[in-house]
Amino acid sequence: MHVAHVVTYISSDAAFGGPVSVALGQAKELASRGHQVDVWAGWDGSYVPQIPGVRFRLFRVARLSRRSFAGLIAPRLLGAFWRERSKYDAVHVHLARDLISLPAALLVRHSTLVVQTHGMIIPDGRISVRVIDFAVRRVMRGARAIALTDTERAKLVAVTRGRVGHVSVIGNGVDVTHMGVEGVQRSRNEVLFLARLNPRKNVLGFAEAARQILRTGKNTTFAICGPDEGQLTPLTEFLTEHGMASSVRYEGAIAPQDVGDRLASSTVFVLPSRNEPFPMTVLEALASGTPVVIDPSCEISDRLMKHDAAVVTDGTNEGLAAAINLLLDNAAERTRLATNGRIALQEEFDIRSVVRKLEVLYR
């Protein structure tokens, strides 16, 4: 089959996060299975992914607003996609309420359209969002849709007022045939936060847990990686107020190709974000052999707990600090969680299983 994937924005700082990682992982596996794959995206003009068998159609973006990705536009992308859209057997749009993925989806016949929303299309009562959702409902009506979880499926039904077409629940996956990262020296006492500095990701909760651990005198360093989305200033103020600047360092955004190595070099990976639907960084950390700490509201927490593959906190900053301490103090526990994590990936989060389900939808 000839398949197109459309995702809003590819950049050197991985600012668009999980949807890009998911799209590229799916495209790579599709190409390895003999399909012809094109990835269409808005682009920052610098980072070009390299995936054998995948052609990238990248178009420079302009910004109508710097406050969100909804302000990105890529008119040349839409013009080129309009001319080429009919050659595809399936068009897989990683849909958000923005001016790149949503217009692209509107250009596609429902008979070839597959829509995946990554938890980005949820009920929202704001007038501006309700206006945009007229277009969302038009896209979703008759399309084959993908929800990451049953919770997201219910939200899609609510947004579309029950008019969404067929919805399949298909989670994210990683390549389990090449787990582990060779040649990377793992730290003995580094705790890593790697996510956008968006309020939902809860970097301030991570900083507070770090403060609680550091005041006990533990010789630990804390690293924060990710592009700023409004939380860098309050984070910096918190670290300065508590004299933590030398123990908690902000490394800025990290290039997509460096994420695996950065996860593998850490002792513990922490994602304290609230209501995270299906975090790719958690799967990537498990694939690198790094033990993971997550919030109980993460929608894959139950699946990881079933395999005893992650430490799930009680949702408080104190519980977060205790979970981090547990792993820092116990190398055997870190090893056990890493082993269980890889088993969980093989049994539940294998990209090959994900793409086999996609092929059924495409056909």
Percentage of residues in DSSP E strands: 15-25%
Count of DSSP-assigned helices: 13
Topology as H/E string? EHEEEEHEHEHEHEEHEHEHEHEHEHHH
Largest sheet: 7 strands, parallel
Structure explained in plain terms:
It is built from 13 helices and 15 strands. The protein is an alpha/beta fold. The strands form 3 sheets. Strands 3-2-1-6-7-8-9 form a 7-stranded parallel sheet, sandwiched between helices. A 6-stranded parallel sheet has the order 12-11-10-13-14-15, with helices on both faces. Strands 4-5 form a two-stranded antiparallel ribbon. α1 packs across α13 and α6 (203-214) packs across α11. The radius of gyration is 20 Å and the shape is globular. It starts with a strand and ends with a helix.
Please describe the structure with a list of short key phrases separated by commas or semicolons.
single chain; 363 residues; alpha/beta; seven-stranded parallel β-sheet
Topology, pairings included?
Elements: E1 2-10, H1 18-32, E2 36-43, E3 54-60, E4 62-63, E5 72-73, H2 75-84, E6 90-94, H3 101-106, E7 113-116, H4 127-140, E8 144-147, H5 150-159, E9 167-169, E10 190-194, H6 203-214, E11 221-225, H7 232-241, E12 248-252, H8 259-264, E13 268-271, H9 280-287, E14 292-294, H10 301-306, E15 311-312, H11 317-328, H12 331-348, H13 351-362
Parallel strand pairs: 1-2, 1-6, 2-3, 6-7, 7-8, 8-9, 10-11, 10-13, 11-12, 13-14, 14-15
Antiparallel strand pairs: 4-5
